[in-house]
Specification:
The complex is a heterodimer. Chain A is α+β, with helices and mostly antiparallel strands. Chain A has a 4-stranded antiparallel beta sheet with strand order 2-3-1-4. The relative contact order of chain A is 0.14. Chain B has 3 domains: about 210 residues, Multidrug efflux transporter AcrB transmembrane fold (Up-down Bundle), CATH 1.20.1640; about 80 residues, Threonyl-tRNA Synthetase, Chain A, domain 2; about 160 residues, Gyrase A, domain 2 (2-Layer Sandwich). Chain B is an alpha+beta fold. Chain B starts with a helix and ends in an 8-residue tail after the last helix. In chain B, the strands form 5 sheets. Chain B has a 6-stranded mixed beta sheet. Classes of the chains: A alpha+beta, B alpha+beta. At the A-B interface, strand 4, helix 5, helix 7, helix 9 and helix 10 of A face helix 7, strand 18, helix 11, helix 12 and helix 13 of B.
Amino acid sequence: MQIIKPDTQIDFVSMRRIALIFSLVLIIVGMGSLLVKGGPNYGIDFAGGTLVQVRFTAPTNAADIKKALEDLSVGSLVVQKFGEESNEFLIRMEKSSDELQGLSREVEGHLVKVYGADKVEVRRTEMVGPQVGKDLRNKGLKALFYAMLGILIYISWRFEFRFAIGAVVALLHDVLITLGAFSLFGKEIDLPIIAAFLAIIGYSLNDTIIVYDRIRENMGRYNKENFGFIVNHSINETLSRTILTSGTTLLVVLALFVLGGGVIHNFAFAMLVGVLIGTYSSIFVASPILIFWQERKAQK
Amino acid sequence: MSKSLKARGLLVFICLGLALFSVAPSLIYDSLPQWWQKAVDPIHRGLDLQGGMHLVLGVDVDKAVESRVDSLADQLEGQLREQDIVFKRVERRQGDRLVVVVYDEDASLALDKLAAESFANLEGETLPATGGYIEKHYRLSATEVENIGDYAVRQALETMRNRVDEFGVSEPTLQRQSGNRILIQLPGVKEPERAIALIGKTARLEFKMVVENVDIAAAQKGNVPPGTQLLYERNTNKQTGAVTETPIVVQSKTSLTGDLLADANVRIDTRFNEPYVSIDFNAVGAKRFDQLTAANVGKRMAIVLDDTVYSAPVIRERISGGSAQVSGAFTSQEATDLAIVLRAGSLPAPVKILENRTVGPSLGNDSIRQGIYSVVVGSLLVIGAMIVYYQLSGLVAVLALVLNIFFISALLALLGATLTLPGIAGIVLTIGMAVDANVLIFERIREELRLGKAPKIALDLGYGKAFLTIMDANLTTLLAALVLFQFGTGPVKGFAVTLSIGIVCSLFTAIFVSRVVFDFFLNRRQIRRLSI
């Protein structure tokens, strides 16, 4: 079976200006949303706070739970439905307590009083103090930074410097858009999401390198042709692979998204957005950057 | 069959055998012989999968430094008295500052000499005299403060380990972390709140003499006579269970501490059928207790635990047996826990909870179920896609994929790595990416076939040309995974581990194993057309 005919020649390169506008729009919308909402929506891992996951035996709703916790003086409190389960909820509080008797205990006490002891099951509690949250955030950013740096060095060594720049710009592009998507959909950024970002980086890079590898090979083969043609030819040659691999990866990420359960739902969401954007960026961002670079050099 | 093919086939089978051997305990632990169970552990499940508690505690080392300064103040005061040096007072100020106030120059010089001789770790400075007094300020040197902090954390870790051992949790983890932090992981702990109370309780037991005829009301307003302090006595009403607190003024100076304990046990008071904790002092403690009670017959002695007075009985007679009891209307569990913490020793400084993640076992089970479910469904989808797209060659890729999952599990078990929920996500992701190597190879083979090459040559060229591409692509991803591992914490690390293992395994299965399978079939007969 074949999806892409062997002699396909789609003119991706001439679409690069439209792609540029498309990418910019995505980034601006995402960043705009971030700006309006006052920065990323950090989960308790990074912001600090307390999270309690509760399952009720009888159906209830967020408003009732909030009411049951009314006289708990914890500052802001958010009650959210957890995943698909109809009677499972996440209660998130900004406050964290470093006392041995944690806030989660108080929450449980209040809920038991209203709903009854055997009607409430606390399935998970998480408390992250503000200091730890800050540390985790710094570590996460550090991980992202060093990963990018390592990649820059590796690709400069294996290819050329401009390839490395193209790859890293594509990665930044992917991470920014995914971050924007998180902000737009009001999803929280937690530790596993940092892992997802790095997985996206890894994946998008994988994709980019395969196109680059073909460009490098074709630069030797068609050294008479202009650079734009070589890039376009290489993208087309690797297109069926790109589509197939993205397809299979999307299949598993989709399985994770739909079936993986609430705890990794956001992780799967990040991967879903990241794989789509990563595939797009290796064709429409990473490769055109090489051409932009070439054109600028030619003008000088 | 060529020699090289035989050798490669053998290698694949050896790996397969090893993998089977390592994975078996994770799948069918109970039906295996004992030597096998001992040889390889089942795959460790993270706290998010099996339920349990992850705690990061911060040791308040400032408090440890303060109490060290307190005890230095006591020693200094004692020595001043011994050497008949006249002083107005010795006190601790501003946390870690030891202040001695003397009347004249002579005393000041004598104090300097004493400090230089016996308290070399104190750095002193003399402040200009105010109102006819000379104030000498001392503080601990920076290295000394660091040592105290370091020692406090180490001792706290040791004490907590003892308490956890008594509490009875299988395979607990207690680790020291940077910044005076202690990481504790208790897999499958049943009563997390009780565990926290038990581990984190300072359990500083002190015996202090009660100061009678003090204006309690004034004391409550903050007007406490010098050398005394206001504490509250905890009373539990037996009928209603309500807890009330009564103010009580005691001497600041501790007459005796719980450090001199030899043992602590729960006993039942037969009169009220109420549990109490009976404590036995060691030889030194018994002697001190003997002296203390002898000197204070008829007075009240407060038994103070973490600044709460549990009881303040009147000393009726000298107690020389070296045992005492802490009562205070405990429930039997409270008494048991108190005995545990007293036996294990007090913490050198109070601790605070910096991070607490507790997952109940039911959620853990759900996560495993959903995780495995999504791995299976994801794999089936990929398998379907590969077979539809590449036909028989797709089947080879599927074989490589199945082996890949198998090898990943085996390596997880062999390396003793911990499988977490993000770890499962990592495996799912590897499945998606593992077929990529085969896709690359197959696409290359198709290209060569289109150029009219014979199947065998096309296969050779396809593998050869795709190899470097695959290496470049996977090594960069591996690079990202290793960075994740280095800088990651908790869930990020779990993800990095399976992703790294997954990349290595997928390189082996997608490039090496699949090639062996192709060679095996192409070797036997002359194939005209490759099903790809």
